[in-house]
Amino acid sequence: MRALAVELRRLNGELNRIVHAFSAGQELHPTDVQALAAILDSDTPLTPSLLRQRLGLTSGAVSACVDRLERAGHVKRVRESADRRVVHLHYVPSAQAQARKHFAPLADATERARRRFDEPELAVVLRFLNVLNEELTETRSGPRG
Fold this sequence. Notes:
Blueprint: H1 2-25, H2 30-41, H3 48-55, H4 59-71, E1 75-79, E2 87-91, H5 93-102, H6 104-114, H7 119-138
Helix pairs in contact: 2-4, 3-4
C-alpha cells in the first residue's frame, strides 16, 4: 500500500528533523541520539558491546559514540560490582531531563494523536509497529530466502 509507505517516510522525516535539532544543539551526532534512545529504552543496563549490536556499529564507532556522550555529560560508565571488567552505560538523569524537555513537543503530539484512537485501534497500531521493527531488525542479518 503506497499510502502507508508515504506516511512512514513522512513520519521518519519529522522524527529525523527533531533528532537532528537535538543532536546539533548538544553538539552530538544523530547516531549518538540513537545510542541515548537505546540506553533509555533498554530493560537492562547496556554494555558498550550490547549497544554496538543494537545499533549495528563497529567497536570503534561505538567507543567514539560513548566517549562523545560521556564528554557531553549524557552518559556515565559504571563498572559492575561483581565483575569490574563489565561496564554498564547509564543515562545521566540531568541530561535525560534536558532531552525530555527538547522532545516534549513530540511527546505532546503523540499524546494528542493517541487520544484520537480507542484501545483496540491502538493495539493494532502497536502490533503493526512491533512487527515492522522485528522485520527491520531481521534485515541486519541479511536477506531471507
